[in-house]
Specification:
38% of the residues lie in helices and 22% in strands. With 122 residues, it is α/β, with parallel strands linked by helices. It has one domain (2-118). The chain has a 6-stranded mixed sheet with strand order 2-1-3-4-5-6, sandwiched between helices. α3 links the parallel β3 (51-54) and β4. It is globular, with a radius of gyration of 13 Å.
Length: 122
Amino acid sequence: MHFILDIHIARRLAKFFESKGHNATLVLNILNGDRTTDKDIADYCDQNECVLVTKDKDFVRMHLLAERPNKLLKINLGNLSNDRLLQILDKYWEKIENNLVNSPVLLELSNHNLIVHIQQNT
């Protein structure tokens, strides 16, 4: 899998994803860097089959309304240390990884749980 880390996601998370055998790229290093629009980020993720990792609730709205980006990991942790964030990611990693095989999928990570939203085709 390839993870795209949105603007406010710590660079250290890239190393976490890489340690799990995946690729990780910072939005700052692609497209128009910190001037990239949410639409362009979502387009890039969908075109390249990437998972967007973000703290931005606008992407949740976009996903729920239009299933864009197709795969979204929303960090709902507020202000906490990067070490604590990495501990929580590691705690839920197996569940996160297993659910990212679904598409579209929205995962919301908080201190005490991981909420999985999978679109059911009817």
